[in-house]
Amino acid sequence: xxxxxxxxxQATAALHLDPQVDTIFEIGGQDSKYICLQDGLVVxxxxxxxxxxxxxxxxxxxxxxxxxxxIGEFGDLARQSSQPSxxxxxxxxxxxxxxxxxQNKGGRLEDLVAGLGYSIVHNYLHLVVGDRKVGQRIFFxxxxxxxxxxxxxxxxxxxxxxxxxxHHDVTGAIGVALLAQKAAGDQPSxxxxxxxxxxxxxxxxxxxxxxxxxxxxxxxKFGQExxxxxxxxxxxxxxxxxxxxxxxxxxxLQEREELLLAxxxxxxxxQAPARPAPGQRAAHSGLGVGLRIGIxxxxxxxEYLPFWGAxxxxxxxxxxxxxxxxxxxxxxxxxxxxxxxxxxxxVAFAHLLSLQERELDYIFFPSVINYxxxxxxxxxxxxxxxxYIPTVPYLALAASNAPGQxxxxxxxxxxxxxxxxxxxxxxxxxxQKLGWPAKRIREAIAQGEAxxxxxYQAAQTRGREVLDQLxxxxxxxxxxxxxxxxxxxxxxxxxxxxxxxxxxxxxxMDFLPLEESTAPAPPKYNIYWLYxxxxxxxxxxxxxxxxxxxxxxxxxxxxxxxxxxxxxxxxAELEGYPCLQIEVDEHNADAGLVTRCExxxxxxxxxxxxxxxxxxxxxxxxxxxSRPTRSNGAPREIYIPYxxxxxxxxxxxxxxxxxxxxxxxxxxxxxxxxxKQFALGKECLPFVLTLGxxxxxxxxxxxxxxxxSFFMPTSDGPCRFGMYYQRQRQIFTQQGYPxxxxxxxxxxxxxxxxxxxxxxxxxxxxLAWQGIVAYELLEKLYRATRPYVADRPAIDQSYREGLQEIxxxxxxxxxxPSLQEAIEQLxxxxxxxxxxxxxxxxxxxxxxxxxxxxxxxxxETIEELGGEVWQSTxxxxxxxxxxxxxxxxxxxxxxxxxxRAYLKQKVQLRDADRLSRLLEGRLEHVxxxxxxxxxxxxxxxxxxxxxxxxVVSLGRSAEFFREGASGIISVMPFTCMPxxxxxALFKRFKEDHExxxxxxxxxxxxxxxxxxxxxxxxxxxxxQYQERKCRHSPGDSKRGR
Length: 1041
What we know:
Residues 292-511 form the DUF2229 domain. This is CoA activase. With 1041 residues, the protein is an alpha/beta fold. The protein has 35 helices and 26 strands. The protein has a 5-stranded mixed β-sheet with strand order 3-2-1-4-5, with helices on both faces. α5 crosses α6, α21 (647-656) packs parallel to α27 (792-811) and α30 (874-891) runs antiparallel to α31 (895-916).
């Protein structure tokens, strides 16, 4: 009779029971939903993405393991709890493990049960609701609403009553029955009776070979009656009525695909007579004509294939593009993924493997450092890729379980920065090695650029045609995405075709004529990712030019780093304009996608009935310029987040020049909860913790925004770090603090970095550097001494006193004598006669590897388990940044900037060397390796051009090995992109370094009992490695001191 989505059905039932309800929490056995209502209409909604931790099935499984009844007994026990167990709010695997750990530690059953109730609530609010509005009249629907423990936990957490309506477990059925009754009117029902389930039927499955999608089709037969099919991505097996709905609509995804391949076909046809047949090709004796070049149908090729098709075609090559993404490739992607990277990256490796099965001479898989600048009016703007893209060829070689590389890779480094033509030189160098003359290669480049321009022009022209043909009142969807996830039918779950069947026209984002927007320019966030820039431009266009005609659907992937921040800016730009976010990974099913699409169309109707005219005012700049002084000229108090003990050096250096500054208290559980409350849920842990630290300060009595500022450096990417202060500024504005400035030196380019520091006294930067070096030298001595000292509380106290001594020395600008005094005090502790402990080198994300709360006291745990720690320093990163600033200035033809960076580094190295000599004779390996040493050591695994901490971490790991470490730990936030790169490359690194134990640890702020278990096993391995090393080279294993 009627098919309607679950969102609309649940909302209809709730409104039937209470027309004033404004919020629905719905948690069923397998999924969960949030629905926001206004004036009786759905205006916002979302569903759980992949994780099942916030659903009833998980709760039932845990109740069964605890031996209790889910109905009645669960709630009764929870009410008896006085201290609910902390089980976190992550996925089922982690929450279940935490439950077992609490059991093993003797946790009371009542506390475990209450902890499960709170975990369900926190998981739902954090991962489903996120930053969406929770109203005053809340309905809790679904089967889980029968659990009084969960109901009570919701009321405690949200701070208001939560109503469980009658028949809460079947409200969806009630809602769709009401909708069917209304739609049917006086017409009879098509319902065939309750005995349908008793009729005999058969189900057969087959693979449809009608196209490259190779869909798995299920065929259901009820005796001799008409058969039914499901599982297809197109309407081939659907009923005629379904076909007719979208029959007249163009398939713009297919049209885009044809445009993408047009230049490839054109160049191949023009070169065909000159190309030998595949079976007749003789050795080309160094000549490139006739080569078969494979190109994966993935990642940046979904936009730039026209260029590469024309480029290689002009050189006389046959270009072979990999097959369309299908289930076989998806399975291959999961099987051979090198690490927990995003799904498009995994699929890219699958395309590479599929090309390895073809008869090819080479596979073209370049390292794309950044993209060509799309905005010619702003040629200096950075057009970064995400951190994964430059590493693709390196990760491809490291993919676990991958077969041997039968076909060699062409891996030029394509760097489009600085207008120096480095990418062209890389292509010329590659081409000359294959036998082409430089002139011919330059012609091929020109052919590629022309083909790419034709593709852009054709897409824009077609987009204008479609938009011009939209009739008044007609609406269309724009898929907001990157080309490689939104325009790959295997990655977008057939979204274009599904919407077409629903009668909805869908445009790829690059069909929008963004340059024709007549609205005021969007806020100038420093969005350094190229696709991030385009996504915000699209949001601005939709809000103004496409208003009430075009609606965005934002397609993202689990683990997408850029999107974890872009979504916040995107939603702010839309200002309440409807948008549906869809997250896809290898576990997604079609049914959930259809439900979301149908519900979104219903929510648009609700929006249109309540919309107000959009303000025409020009948006204010979201990030005010830093102001270290107040309006009356007095300096503002600078609040500095605690990263490591060296943070106190920066605060002391500010105070030395009369600028009030303090390091905020170390992060704690309150910081984490505050940060998570205002974050979107996908950002990296350092962002969440620093956000929470700032918010704690702002909520303190007496905080005066007119007298305060926050210290948060930034960058030009590609890592997410450069988004921190911009997103935090946005959140502060929403919380009523729009004018608290940030001091944000930009380490990504010489202009921003030096300009930001020029507002402070000339000696500040050098004094802060000296303080950081002094702090880290003292910590190095402390870490080399503490494991061998009997009275650890005493040496801990001595170390803290030493830090205070150095801080005093910085303020009074006598760093060296203070450091000398602190060293003498720390050196007075006698060492015991215990054997040398295995030395563990720690690398990774600069904040988390040093942050005690963030890494769950990693260093102290290693020492407790019998290890000695060598830690990467802040100096290392500062010197690396300085090297980059020199390069950036040189390439910009900025001689003054180059000289500043060059001289600054010379002074810094001299100061560090002078201070380090105070520890000579007391410690091994006092002096830090040079930046060039680190980059040279990393190059075999990841070329220095890829940048980010991944390069530095790999280089420092190699240096730790040479200095005698017995194990390497890489520390990273959960979903950290550079960290995942290091993790993927650790396998090859380990093989090249005597199988030294290597461990990657990721943190998301929640206590993970498995980390300690992994550390215990790792320390055993490190000790065994140390013993094996000592047997072969007795002099190699030394104490740090």
